[in-house]
Amino acid sequence: MRFTPLIVLIVLLLFTGSILPQDLKCNYCNKTIKGNYLTTDGKSYHENCYRDHVQPRCELCGKVIDGKYAILDDKMYHPVCYTDHILPKCAICNLPLQGKYYTDYWEYSFHGRHSSELPECSTCGRLICEALTGGGFELGDGRFLCGICNETEVSGDFLLGASVSYVRRLLESNGIDNLPDEIPITLVDRQKLEQLASSYSDAMNGFTQHNIQIQNGRVISKSSHIYILSHLPLTMFRAVLAHELLHVYLFGRDLELRSDICEGFCNLGSELVYKDIRSEYAKFRLLNMQKSQDPDYGYGYRKMSAELDRKGWRYLLESLSSIR
Ligand SMILES: [Zn+2]
Ligand SMILES: [Zn+2]
Ligand SMILES: [Zn+2]
Ligand SMILES: [Zn+2]
Ligand SMILES: [Zn+2]
Fold first, then answer.
1. What's the 101 CA to ligand 3 centre distance in angstroms?
2. Residue 30 Cα, ligand 1 centroid: separation in angstroms?
3. Strand ranges of the sheet holding 43-46, from the earlier edge strand across to the other edge
């Protein structure tokens, strides 16, 4: 929340010469005052000296200021000049931002009231409107998607193959290999995700279902099926995919970890993607993970991120089962 400065008042008094104090000197020219004079701030001036040399001028229009003025960075303005030309404008309604206002992550400043009037994009946090996002969409499952995020949204098979090979390469370069060749990926809405996951959290954007086939008491095959929220922007889709592929990795190694260690570890996959892509959006999503209050996706992630910083990928992978 930010504030714009207040309007202040110059107190200026005009005296007529009839009640002149003895030997009153002008504070500007230092000559004795005879006739009308002005006082302000405890100082007296010849009317002309004041008007021509002392009276403040508006930094914007250059005309003298009488009475009220606004001050910003030690510069003075007529209230109207200030409101119309100096005050920042609301990025949404274009009216001046007077008093309290908000600035979002994307550095758009707007009146606080718009936050309750407009829906927020579920992936980038922008308020959805024509001015900020070129409109947006309400998805059937209660999520909103802004026009900017919608430009790269993943809703069909298009780009899926490219994303899978990109994420696999990124994971492999950090020692996460031996993932099964074919892992089915299905895009789902929030309700479906909620049904699939036994313990559901709002911070969840995907889910991996593991299947084990047992015959005569022996495991004969293991497979995984990845579900990811549909309509995620490509960058976030890739980050969620990396998270889910790490679940597949853990499953392949029979590593059953405590939920905060497990989700925290898998979020390191998302972190890899965001740090690799480095767009403003990727930075925003990373910040979101770093600030998350979720016990697994937030606290667990920060715990595992610190482990990774200490150990590096190779030693982290080797020591996963011993982390407490
Ligand atoms: Zn004077
Ligand atoms: Zn002015
Ligand atoms: Zn506004
Ligand atoms: Zn968005
Ligand atoms: Zn997970």
1. 9
2. 6
3. 13-15, 37-40, 43-46
Q: What is the per-residue pLDDT across 170-225, written as a single tens digit (0 to 9) for each?
A: 999 999 988 999 999 999 999 999 999 877 788 899 999 999 999 998 988 999 99
Q: With the C-alpha atoms ordered 88, 90, 96, 99, is the resulting torsion angle positive or negative?
A: negative
Which residue ranges form the domains of the chain, and what is each CATH number? 2-86 (2.10.110.10), 100-151 (no CATH), 154-322 (no CATH)
In the three-class reduction of DSSP (H, G, I as helix; E, B as strand; rest coil), residue 73 is classed as coil
In this prediction, the residues of the chain whose per-residue pLDDT falls under 50 are none
CA-CA distance, 185 to 199, in Å (whole number)? 20
Answer for the pair 259, 200: CB distance below 8 angstroms, yes or no: no
Contact between 304 and 268 under an 8 Å Cβ cutoff? The reply is yes
Nearest-10 Cα torsion for 294, 297, 298, 304: 140
Q: How far is the CA of 243 from the centre of ligand 5 (A)?
A: 6
Residue 23: helix, strand or coil by DSSP? Answer: coil
